[in-house]
Amino acid sequence: MPAPLPPSETTRLAALRSYGILDTEAEEAFDRIVALAADFLATPIAAISLVDEARQWFKAKLGLAIDETPRDIAFCAHSILQTGVLVVEDARRSPIFADNPLVTGPTGIRAYAGAPLVTPDGQALGTLCVIDTRPRRFSRRQRRQLGRLAAMVMAELELRRA
Question: Residue 26 in contact with residue 60, Cβ under 8 Å?
Fold first, then answer.
């Protein structure tokens, strides 16, 4: 099920474009944060996902063979609507995600945790997310760690912008 658009979608998209990050080359700083997220949360997949009008694009990724997905199937399009970490313990049992091709297809998402990447003025550009191919829970500590790593992603984006 596609996520609804945020109420401030026009402002959010303008904020995303202002960072000049979409469709840029891989960067070691972001790759390191993704590797830390996968390590700390013990998942085979992690990514920094940026959500534009039509897609989610992965600035950095580990364990994913794709560079982007349509926005209407993106778990991260749901995460940007949250103020905290969105957790899906078993996507096959979720009324929102059970029929999603990222769940039913070769990507095989079962568990997901995504922390929004929020600008200083409150716009969610995307997420730092971790994915597992088996159902699982994420502890409070792991959720906090993911949130802190997402803040590091935003700090890096702010440095690039300055």
Answer: yes
